[in-house]
Structures are given as C-alpha cells and as structure tokens.
C-alpha cells in the first residue's frame, strides 16, 4: 500500500527541488547550532563535575554533539541532491546512494528525538547524582591538605555564593559534618574538648555554616555560628526571623538550573528535529517523483511521488532484514569458531 501518493507536475518538482536546497542549508545551520548547544551543556556539566556522583547525565550533550555533526553531513548531501534534481541528467547518479542515505538519516533523526526526550527525562538521575556528590563535597570541605580534595572547599564556597544556596538540602546539613579542619582547632580549649567528647564519632560539630552561606542582601551582619541559639545573639529568634544566610539547598538550586538549561535546549533541538524531518520527507517525494522521469525524452511530464512504496511495517522490515541477516551470520561464524574440532586419534 502506497503511503501519501501525490502528483507532481514539472513546475512543482522544480519548486520542490529549490525548496529542498534552501531547507537543507537552513537545517545545516541548525545542525551546527545543535552541536554547539551540546558543547555548551557539556561544558556546564563538567564545571560542576566535583559535586556530581556520576556522569550519566552526560549522555544528553554527547548525543546532541553526535546528531549535530551527523546533521551537517546529512543536509549537505540533501542540498547537493536537490541541486542535481533540477537537471534530469545528473539526478540518476544518486540512485544507489539514496537507500543507505535514508537509512542513516532516519537513524540519526530518531536519535535526535531521543536526545530531546532524555533532556526532559533525566531529572531523576541528575538529582540523585547531585545528592550524593554534594553530600561528599560537604563532607570533604575541610580536607584542604588532602591530595585530590584540596580544592573542594573553594569549589563549594564558589558554588554557594554563585547559586545563593547553602548545604545539600538546606543549611542544616552543615550541622551534621565537621567542616572545620583539626588544623584550626585549639585542642587545649575546654569548649573544643567538650564538643568532641559529646560526639560519638569524635567530630567537632557546630550549629554554624561557612561564610559562603551568608546573604549579602541582609541588613544585619552575618550570623554564622550558634544559629539555633537565640540567647547568643541580641534581638534574634531563628524560628520567627528570616535568617541572614541562604535558606535554599544547593541541590535544588543546581537541579533547577540544569533542568532549565536542558529544557530550553530540548525545545530548540525539537525544532531542529522538525526541520530535519521536513528535509527527509521533501527529499523522499523528490526522489520518487524523479524516478518516473528517468530514461524519458520529455522530462517535463507530470509524475507521481509518494512517501512509502509499502506500508510502514513492510518498509521497516525491508531495511532491518539485511541487518538481522548480517548479525545472524556473524553469530553463526562466531559459534563455529568456538566449537572445538574432533580430537586427533
């Protein structure tokens, strides 16, 4: 069953070829933009790599860069084919090229759509990665003398000031870890000894936060220590007053930032996907309408073009069968190589 059959007079074929040429070059630019967006997202993710537990989220920018580069090649050839379609004598040279070209093009176009879907669907993976990464970052904040962790304090401080956040979930996360190095503690002090003894793990815990949690917009000088002790500060009530530190956790701030970035990129790449689909549909109509002109003296006759010669299922199987046969043959060869020969007498 032929899908989307249409009649194409000569003038309509010319306009289709000209439109395809213009559309393919517009989509080439869009493909370059897709690659650039993937690079931007990759760079932003790498900037905060120290507060991420894994790199699973990098599959999104990696895919965008791959499909962006593939789009450049796909649309370059689409433009050349559209240009040659204006001359019935030059178009037949593309006949053997078009079938594998459509297979590759459809694969990368579907991959582009998957990249868009992943940019919206990876929120859970990103959140869990940030949760563990930030927890470790806070835990290693004090290890400025430990190789591999000496920049952790600087990274966390810059992060909290840039995103105006404090802690992982909120500022109370700093109460649960010793974020002041033993190097800066006076162990002869009674207060220090009492705090360490009162903790099962022998850690120096305080109800305070690093300076990077301070909110410069607050009119009151920053209160970093004894945040939960009303009597330690004049005219202060932590339960009723707005604290002059950042309240929101960094996990939520980073998650909102990255999801906003990926959603914006996803919307842009979706428009590129629609453009790419239009190029392939136009090229397919041009191909099938030009096939009827091949070998004819009068190239200005009216022809018919279609999207699919068979149904969708039959067309998909036509492309998959050679691949499946190749994989089956390869598997049989491997099994034959692994089978031991008869033992010598």
UniProtKB/TrEMBL annotation:
GO cellular component annotations of the record: plasma membrane
Entry superkingdom: Eukaryota
Keyword hit for Lipid metabolism: no
Transmembrane segments: 58-79, 100-122, 265-286
Pfam family, one: Tetraspanin
Keywords of this entry: Membrane, Transmembrane, Transmembrane helix
CDD domains linked to this entry: peripherin_like_LEL
GO biological process: visual perception
Membrane topology: Multi-pass membrane protein
InterPro entries the record matches: Peripherin/rom-1, Peripherin/rom-1_CS, Peripherin_LEL, Tetraspanin/Peripherin, Tetraspanin_EC2_sf
Family, as annotated: Belongs to the PRPH2/ROM1 family.
Protein name, per record: Retinal outer segment membrane protein 1a
Organism for this UniProt entry: Mugilogobius chulae
